[in-house]
Batch of 2 targets.
Target 1
Amino acid sequence: MNDPARDPEDSLDALFALARTRRPDTSAAEYAFETRLLGRLRTPTETGSVWAMASWRLIPFFAACVVALMLWHAQVVAQTNEAEQMAYVENPEPFDSWNNLN
Amino acid sequence: MEATLAGDDDAFAELASRHKSRVFGVAARFAGNAAELEDICQDVFVQAYFKLRQYRRDSPFEHWVLRITTHKCYDYLRKRRRSGTTLSVEALLESGHEPSAPEPPAPHPGLERLHAALAQLSPKERLVITLLELEERSVLEIAGLTGWSAANVKVRAFRARTALRKLMEHQT
């Protein structure tokens, strides 16, 4: 006689056979299932909830947009500051010319 | 079916009543508890209701519904894996048990190990090994239910069995 415990393959087959015989009892869950199903089918679909779900799912996209805008803004500010500094270096006293006009 | 397509919801309820046992039977192999089982089965029939026009009558209605069931179960397995929750069939047996019903069989240590190992498999592996070994479906039937090729089913079943054996060896 082969001992099923010795051969893992036999042991696995024996467990599968045992599991097949122990099918979960779903009779309680099946009770009045049609009524609950019809209740769900007759519930009008709320378009608002669809939009809410879509907007929640778009949060990463919006977050990425905000980060990109912040980076772009920081870059623009840095370029502006640099340009202003360059202008100042090239023309350190811009008000003189304005005063000269008067 | 014609009546359902004509808008008779009660006819669909009758259709659901006729096929619910098979759907519950398959879904119970994958569901973690009674609430999840209810969700899967409702999702199956809701999808069947809204896609009834897509049903081509080249195969029995039950096959079509079981194909939807298989896909829904796979979706739930993936969702559960993402959320990281593990549930057992033993929990399902207990949660669906009514006080008036006869006592469920005592938990078998080997079966508990098997279900614990099954819960650790990938969704695809679990799906294929459950359908093949617990539901006793043929490779061709599984290919029809999942949409995978027969060769793919065989390869996945082989890998699932190997993984399951290793997991169970680690448990001992």
Target 2
Amino acid sequence: MEDAEHLYGVLGLEPGASREQVERAYRFSLELYGEDTLATYSLLDPTELEDMRSRIREAYQLLSDPERRQAYDQGHGFAPPEIPVVPFPETPEAGAEDVELPEVLTGPDLKRIREARGVSLRHMANVTKIGTRFLEYIEDDRFGFLPAPVYLRGFLHEYARMVSLDPRRVAEAYMKRLPSRS
Amino acid sequence: MALTVSETLSVGRAAKRRQIWSVGGGKGGIGKSLIAASLGWQLARMGQRVVLVDADLGGANLHTCLGLPSPARTLADFIQRRLDTIEEALTETGAPGLRLLSGAGDLLTAANIKHMQKVRVLNKIRGLDVDVVLIDIGAGTSFNSLDFFLLSDVAVLAVVPEPSSIENGYRFIKSALYRRLRAAAPHAGVRNLVDTALDPKNDLGLRTPVDLVARVEQEDVEAAAALRREMGSFHPRFVINEVRDDRDVAIGHQLVAACGRHLGLRASYAGYVHFEDAVWRAVRRRRLFMADAPTSRAAEEIRQLTRGLLKGETLGPGY
């Protein structure tokens, strides 16, 4: 409780948390103090819950902004996160159209986005009916194990839909890096 | 359902000394006895020698969970010296390694038994020559239930994803913690503060154990440190019973976070058990679903839960 004052504590994190951790902790905290939550309504009154929610939103807004976070960390003597904070993906509430997709997407990029969105591989496999194995090949850039481009494109479309990205552009940005088969 | 060799070996060696486990919940009708019975059954299956202690006041029904008739011998027979040793009061359950001790709840409430005698009997229970003494403690927050919970090596708090159950779970944890803090209070001043904090509408505005310790610190730094140590050593483990979807599963993580952030307690999430037809079908037949429906999801979840509790593993922070 003693570190509840710094913004990381508000999200239940330690300084140095990765961008993914910030994303997940933010979603978790919003649920924890949500209006229909079972876990906190008997511990805090409605005003306190609302107060927690706005503190959480403020903490998230600052910590998810690379520049503001850097300034904040320096101001408090916190070490920078080990993995650099990238301004990507957008906040969970933001629609897919707001996400600035780079020209080229790697498997690890996709994985990072998926994790930030809080979508598990198993869940994705359940919904898309694409085997977990293939989803992992995609994220690990194991091109040799991936199916023919025509199928891969379909997989990437499904993948993109699961993480609220533009399917066509994701497939394009990912497949740019495929070794040519000619 | 055979165990793998490594499973049997690792678990068999894990518990060298006798452990006290307890399952509490602070509310009746949430499947607490069923969880206690299946944990005991699974522990025995994994090679532990287990005694299940039915300490539910009034509503003792562990034997029914195990498909047994009302036991012919209970703790009362030992107390009233109809039996020479406490071992003779144990009932075989039909599952190798798993025995049952009935009537412990009666002992705790019986007015005609002297306090010293209770202590002696409780020490006998704790001293049973087994690997795990697993106590099904009753509903409610009587001192006796709380004491069982507090003295456990593994204190499991069962809740179902419903408001009243979770409220009662918190009440149970708070009551147990305050009782522990009260016992650790070095002098009457601190004891009085603990008593004040017990009243949810107290004048000092002490709403949580964290508030209490902060208040104590203003007066007595050393006493506050002692209370913090007590809080740090109290480690309830949540089990969510009758979950129906992922949101229910997530509640366990939320409870742990809420305990940490608002009660100052290091709780953990030990596991969950899905609501399943196979379970209540077995209950209706007065059979334990672990034996009756070993391939059910709930049975697999109990197996995971038992392994996790033995190894001290938890389900992580949830984010």
